[in-house]
Amino acid sequence: MSSSNWTTDFLSLLSRDITVTRIDTSPVIVWQIESHAWQRFAELAMLQNLRWAAGWAEQAQNRFLINSCFEKQGEYVLLRASIDDANPELPSQATVYPAANRSERHTQDMFGIRFIGHPDNRRWTRHQAWTENSYPLRKDFPVQGTPVGITAPDMHYPFIKSHGAGVYEIPVGPVHAGIIEPGHFRFQAVGELILNLEERLGYVHKGMEKIAEGRTPESLARLAGRVSGDTTVGHCWAACMAMEQASGVVIPPRAALIRGILAERERIANHMGDIGAICNDVAFVFAQMQFTRLRELWLRTNATVFGHRLLMDRIVPGGVACDLSEASCSLIKKDIVELRKELAEVILALDLNSSLEDRLYTAGFLSEDTAAAYGTLGYVGRASGQDKDVRRDTPYPPYDQIKVKVALETQGDIASRFWVRYKEIMAALHMIEDFIDQLVAGDIRSEWQMPASGSEGLGIVEGWRGEIVCYVRFDADDKIARFYPRDPSQLNWPALEKLVLNNIVPDFPVCNKSLNGSYSGNDL
Amino acid sequence: MLRILKKILTTGVVTERFSLRSHAAGHGNVDELEQLGIQVKRHIDKKFSGSIAIRQVDAGSCNGCELEIHALNNPFYDIERFGVHFVASPRHADVLLVTGPVSRHMQTALLRTYEATPNPKWVVAAGDCAACGGEFGVSYASCGAVSNVIPVDAVIPGCPPTPLALMKGLLELMSAKK
Ligand code: SF4
Questions:
Q1: Contacts of B8 in chain A (CB under 8 A)
Q2: Which CATH superfamily is domain A208-523 in?
Q3: Partners of A319 in the beta sheet?
Q4: What does the pLDDT look like over A474-522, one tens digit per residue?
């Protein structure tokens, strides 16, 4: 990893324009600035190629703290401004970073903070479950809210309109035709061609940030494991990492290795499921059957070895909840050998299949520029040339002990995303073997230490969908004051609106599957 | 093409060769699954003239439950062979399989889906969230259990319920119904 010189250079560059106060008490690098310089900072950051990674707010007494997390060369900086709650507003960063768009809208809905100059300040997370002038994440908003009997449908959301001869609209959802999560898609099409797609999410908003408040570390880990069920390991790890950072708890080396094995197993299970589903969406059922079969075998080993098919609640604050026996290690290794053999056979059949080639190549194209502008993460970003991976760029245990190979493609189409995922499976199999080989004896859980009131932590891990950023702040008595998990889906959903353009409507399912955003992880 | 055929042939029918690998109890026992399936099929034949149509509705889940419902269609469980199939519209459904706590933003959509399902119909609440609110409970954003919003005929606990638990739950529903 290159040295962190950019922060020093950048700080001196900033000093001409903006006064930055470094808050060193925190384990996170925090730069505090005046709120009026919020947008100016973004402009300068953009010039220096900083990546906007996440944004959130929190209420502290009669002030709001606004946070934006930036990254460059694997180094993360938390930018912070404090504003008076009597007039909560500050200039938008979304004008500079499109990636910040929905995040600022979420903050606007949840806290009533105005982002001046925001390019699109329609409501986002709020539908009709609470009223326009009430804000669930403010401290005076009761967790029960004031619900009416039946929450009205969100009928009058001002969708973008298009006019012209032959242009028609297709509304889809929230209840979809398959076994998938709910959300609404509004297409404008001419003939079969998609002119525009607008996503309307927020249907599975479950108030996770609010119901996290007051929880114990254990209980927060459980909740984090349900931010998005398919990423239970990733989110649980990020939340535990944030809590451990806040309290200064160091997890035992053995626990770190087991966490690594869990995370890579989750990555492989999801990629296998999705590769099968992508093939199914172009009517190549052979592959779907093979991959769902391999996935099922994989999940059964999860159940045998870890006691849960999806690996929920295996990561706990301070370490992991389950150890690995010698027998389990050899079962895992044996499985890997078999899986490699099977994948080699199946993938050859796929690679040579002309109908897959016909449907997956050039479809759902996402350019490198668009991916960079929207901060697209994980396999979607990596299929469009975004060479980012937290495991390699900001290695955390156990990834600091191995060489992480990052799969990269530059074509930006569905086929690229398909192949990136396949390569990630192969790389993950190697990592699991490495972790097992390095498995040291010892504890699997460190004793928890109650953090001081006000301590904060930032957990950043590479989930199977990409970088997860999780912020935690503690109150007194080990209670959670603020929990904010940023799922990679929040940054990847907007990419779907772009990559479907000029594709035909019937290709939407396969375009969507190739990205596979989490609704729950986005809506919180 | 030859490769595909070869792979299909060498893979064989995993659906029946269930005990090929020994896995933890409750997660893949050939006898249990077969027996369950046969019972399910018997009920379906008698009460639903051979097949039952399920419409799955995610009313706010974390998506974990969906993953396991999906698994019912993989070649190991292949639930269609027992006459159970998933349909794309509530208009075609006998059963609504609802997951998640009902988020308030999904409340109307769930009610409308319920109304769109022809009578007679049954509702199964799958997963701890659907059963009792689970980790999310009742809040400004969540109505909690499915039964807080529409009448529920059967509940399948688990977070998420395993495919086998889902099969058992469906069986219970059908044995209870006249
Ligand atoms: S029961 Fe568990 S897996 Fe299912 S939706 Fe609730 S939290 Fe997710």
A1: 286
A2: Cytochrome-c3 Hydrogenase, chain B (1.10.645.10)
A3: A316, A445
A4: 999 999 999 999 999 999 999 999 999 989 999 999 999 999 999 999 9
Q: What's the rounded Cα separation, in Å, for the pair A41 and A39? A: 5
What average pLDDT does the structure give for chain B?
85
Calpha distance A308→A258 (Å, rounded): 15
Pocket residues: Cβ below 6 A from ligand 1: A 226, 229; B 61-62, 64-65, 99-100, 127-129, 134-135, 159-160
| CATH classification of the domain holding B147 | 3.40.50.12280
Q: Does A138 touch chain B (CB under 8 A)?
A: no
Strands B52-58 and B84-86: parallel
Predicted confidence (pLDDT) at residue A48 exceeds the cutoff of 80: yes
**Residue A324, Cβ neighbours under 10 Å: how many?**
20
Euclidean distance between CA atoms A310 and A230, whole angstroms: 7
- How far apart CA A90 and CA A96 sit, in angstroms, is 14
Q: Could you tell me the pLDDT band of residue A1, with boundaries at 50, 70 and 90?
A: very low
Domain hosting B103: range is 2-176
Q: Report the pLDDT averaged over residues A140-152.
A: 91
Q: What is the largest CA-CA distance in chain A?
A: 70
The DSSP code sequence of B111-161 is HHHHHHSPSS-EEEEESHHHHH-TTT-BSSSBB-SGGGTS--SEEE-SSSP
CA separation for the pair A402, A435 (Å, rounded):
8
User: Inter-chain contact A304–B24, Cβ cutoff 8 Å?
Assistant: yes
To the nearest 10°, report the CA torsion of A245, A246, A247, A252: -10
Instruction: Compute and round to an integer the Cα radius of gyration of chain B.
Output: 17
Distance from CA of B178 to the nearest CA of A (A): 28
Q: Are A489 and A227 in contact (CB under 8 A)?
A: no
Phi, psi of A29 (to 5 degrees): -75, 115
Whole-model pTM: value is 0.93
The number of distinct structural domains making up chain B is: 1
Q: Are A476 and A451 in contact (CB under 8 A)?
A: no
Give the CATH architecture of domain A2-116: 2-Layer Sandwich (3.30)
| Selected residue of B17, B74, B107, B150 to mutate for chain A interface (largest A Cβ count, 10 A) | B74
The angle formed by the CA atoms of residues A188, A191 and A196, to the nearest 5 degrees, is: 20
A286·B27 Cβ contact <8 A: no
Average pLDDT of span A191-199 = 93
Percent over 70 (pLDDT), chain B: 90
Among the listed residues B133, B178, B174, B138, the one whose alpha carbon sits nearest the alpha carbon of residue B154: B174
pLDDT the model gives residue B16: 43
Nearest-angstrom CA–CA distance, B177 and B46:
11
Q: Tokens in use for B50?
A: 């051979």
Question: What residue ranges do the domains of chain A occupy?
Answer: 2-116, 167-200, 208-523
Residues 6+ apart with CB under 8 A from A319: A251, A252, A255, A443, A444, A445, A446
In the three-class reduction of DSSP (H, G, I as helix; E, B as strand; rest coil), residue A132 is classed as coil
Which residue, chain included where needed, has tokens 């804000």? A135
Question: How far is the C-alpha of A70 from the C-alpha of A100, rounded, in Å?
Answer: 11
To probe the interface with B, which of A106, A204, A209 has the most B CB atoms within 10 Å? Answer: A204
By Cβ distance, the residue of A152, A297, A312 closest to B108 is: A152
pLDDT tens column, A399-451: 999 999 999 999 999 999 999 999 999 999 999 999 999 999 999 999 999 99
Question: Which residue, among A200, A281, A187, A198, has the nearest Cα to A505 in the 3D structure?
Answer: A187
Q: Cα–Cα distance between B46 and B50 in angstroms, integer?
A: 7
Q: Which residues is A51 bridged to in the sheet?
A: A71
Q: Give the 3-state secondary structure of residue A486.
A: strand
Q: Helix (H, G, I), strand (E, B), or coil: what is residue A75?
A: strand
